[in-house]
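Dear U.,

Please find below the material for section 3 of the report. The protein was modelled together with S-adenosylmethionine; I have listed the sequence and SMILES used, followed by the predicted complex structure.
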Amino acid sequence: MELNKIKHADCLEYLKSLPSDFVDLVVTDPPYNVSQKSDIKCGNFNVTKNFGDWDYGFDPIPVLQELKRVVKPTGQIYVFCATRQIPIYMQFFEDNCYFRNLLVWNKTNPAPRISKTNFLFANEYLLYAINEKCKMTEVTFNFSKQNEMHNIFITSALQGKERLKDKNRKALHPTQKPLAILKKLIEVSSNEGDVVLDPFMGVGSTAVACKELGRNFLGCELDERYVKLANIRLIQD
Ligand SMILES: C[S@@+](CC[C@H](N)C(=O)[O-])C[C@H]1O[C@@H](n2cnc3c(N)ncnc32)[C@H](O)[C@@H]1O
């Protein structure tokens, strides 16, 4: 299989094509199942919470089972998720892997709560596990300084130059993740030359982070438009 290439494919078909015990690290951002079909009225504007057909009815379990197979026993897995998905991932990692931590991405610019009937959703989460119970001396974990290893990332949701936009300044992907978070995870849990997998590449943020850090990447994305954007990004980077 070809390293440093994003395949246009469905995640399960793609994962089934990979050999067992091959991957050093998974950093991935699967669908959150949070989309809503109808827009939210905000004064004169309509705010859409519909990310795309891909964000409905996603079942993480078959994907997790395949990830477990392709990752080396001492390999590590980070999965971004929404609040309601935490128990699903946590249970899987407790039952089948070596659950290590729940990391929080605290967004300093969450979407406003127009109705003012609940708190804002300012956090997204990352479940962190090692594939199998093992001694930590066998695991790559590049701890830096105490104050750089808190289990919280405080940044704005992606905006500015890093956010891919069309000529009308509209975001090209609804959930593009910040490179700073991805790079931190990859630096801590892999070494140069290691193989990092993301079967939900979107516009290729994990791949770009790997390229910048000298790691090999592999992965796939269902939407061909996003694969093309990811490839343009990788050439430009
Ligand atoms: C949350 S987004 C990932 C965004 C990515 N982290 C980035 O920064 O661009 C999830 C992505 O998974 C893709 N996707 C959804 N279902 C998929 C499937 N069955 N196989 C592969 N990709 C899928 C979607 O098209 C979407 O781009």
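For the text of the report, you could mention the following: The helical segments are 11-16, 60-70, 86-96, 179-189, 205-213, 224-236.

Regards,
Y.
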